[in-house]
Amino acid sequence: MSGMVTEVRPPRRDEMAAYYRALPCANGLPSWEPADAAWHGGPEPWPPQRTPASAEQLEKLAAADIENESFHPIATFVDGECVGASATISFEVTVPGGRTARMAGVTATGVIATHRRRGYLRQMVQAMFEAAWERGEPLAMLSASEGSIYGRFGFSPATYRTRWELARHEAALLPAEPDPGSLELVDAAQAKTAWPRVHAEVRAHRVGELSPLPGRWDGLSDEADGTNGPLRFLAHRDKHGDVDGIANFRLPWSPTADRAGTLVVEALEATNSVAYRALWGLLIDFDLTKTVVAPGRPRDEPLRWMLTNPRAMRITRQTDNLWARLLDVPRALTQRSYLAPGSLNFTIDDDQMWPANNGTWHMKADDAVATCVPTDGTADLTITLSALSSLYFGGMSAQNLAHAGHITAHADGAIGHLARMFWTDPEPHNSFGF
Fold first, then answer.
1. Which residues is 243 bridged to in the sheet?
2. CA–CA separation, 71 vs 189, rounded Å?
3. What share of the chain is helix, strand, coil (3-state, %, to 5)?
4. Are strands 160-167 and 182-186 parallel, antiparallel or unpaired?
5. Local structure of residue 226 (DSSP, 8 states)
6. Neighbouring-strand partners of residue 235
7. CA-to-CA distance for 235 and 247, rounded, in angstroms?
8. pLDDT at residue 346 in the model
9. Beta-strand pair 139-142/99-111
């Protein structure tokens, strides 16, 4: 290995095919822990087996990525050979208080099997952190393909998602006021127009939700997808005729009786509770079906509280969704608002990849403005960078993190005060990965 020349840098245009070949997904290799995934509606484990991408497919992907200004690839080259690849995508993410923060979404990461355990992943992650910081992105997020990898880089779970099932014969809704709007089955062209508008309004109020990737809904189609059947679209219009809710669902065929009659809700968003209730009201009582399956849903799905029997909604799978990592602690903390006003002195002393975050910080928050500056004062608590990253979106328990040793209190009541300041209701959630 001596004398090898190692470079960690963005790939050139003529190196993009080699860049993709360093990624498991391009080679038909496992790219995720085999699991009963909470974002998959079928009974089988996810992900399915994939075939290696062709040269033509890689070229098409490269052409699209090069044109995408929000896509930032990074690669490791050893003696000119690409042995590792990753990328970040620039997003905006909604933070507590309804504001948005710029975020680097880490995606598509791999090191070829013959070059693992040599620190190449850490070098690429460090390079991505530095580039994100220079772009003014104070935090990074990712979906962890393997739960034991990314904690060592400061990432920690920040949002969750669930898959639930509901038997149709148990799916009765509590009485409610009549709906002044209407439901309509629409085609893919209408859905493509409705989804961006509905998502934009939902995203403005949902902590953890992301700005959509370019072409997010371009793939919606009325064509059948093998035995899954065609994707179908249900829209809700308010009393003025404007779409304020939409759902994508399938009625897949099953070769076995136990899975027959299943309706899978692949996505559902509504800008208000009336539209939300109306959409679910039809989908959980669809003719000639037995079971409703909804993957990728919030852990605190409001529908449960609309049912006459809340136990009828059974969570069958649950997993962490996005993991967060603060890159610029003071900037990130001042971009969100806080439920309870107050101030805290806290110490971070474990950030090896971004030492500027280490030290004691004085954070003060009121209804509209938060500040975070270095201080020589006594710390109320010491917190790991990963714990602070988990708390950032308000969906994790400060008490649990303290019990696990990630937070140490130095003053009475400090953990409770931290919990009250950072808490968010409802829990953070994002509806799609990257």
1. 237
2. 27
3. 30, 30, 40
4. unpaired
5. G
6. 184, 246
7. 6
8. 98
9. parallel
pLDDT at 259: 84
Report the sign of the C-alpha dihedral through residues 200, 202, 207, 213, in that order. Answer: negative
Query: What are φ and ψ of residue 181, in 5° steps?
Result: -100, -155
**Cα separation, 317 vs 296, whole angstroms:** 9
Assess contact for 8 and 86: CB atoms under 8 A. no
CA distance 343 to 330: 14
Amino acid 368: pLDDT: 74
Place of tokens 């608590």: 381
SS3 of 183, please?
Answer: strand
Which residues are CB-neighbours of 297 under 8 A, at least 6 positions away? 161, 162, 163, 164
Strands 342-348 vs 156-157: parallel, antiparallel or unpaired? unpaired
As averages over each run of 10 residues, the pLDDT of the chain (434 residues) reads 83 95 88 85 82 92 92 97 97 96 96 94 98 98 91 96 96 96 98 98 97 94 88 98 98 87 97 98 96 96 97 95 98 95 96 97 90 98 98 97 98 97 96 91
d(CA 322, CA 324) in angstroms, rounded, equals: 6
What number of other Cβ atoms are within 10 A of residue 259's Cβ?
15
What pLDDT sits at residue 1?
53
Backbone angles phi, psi at 190, to 5 degrees: -70, -35
CA distance 54 to 190: 33
- Cα 260 versus chain centre, distance: 30
- With b meaning 16 or more CB within 10 Å and e meaning fewer, what string describes 300-317? ebebeebbeeeebbeeeb
Q: Check if the beta carbon of residue 77 is closer than 8 Å to that of residue 83.
A: yes
Nearest alpha carbon to residue 101 among 268, 330, 296 = 330
Which residues are CB-neighbours of 59 under 8 A, at least 6 positions away? 17
Kindly report the CA angle at 344 between 339 and 347, in degrees rounded to 5? 125
What pLDDT is recorded for position 50? Answer: 81
Residue reference for tokens 């990314």 = 150
With residue 238 as reference, give the H or E element that holds it.
none
CB atoms within 10 A of CB 32: 15
> Catalytic residue numbers?
150, 434
**In the 8-state DSSP scheme, what is residue 49?**
P
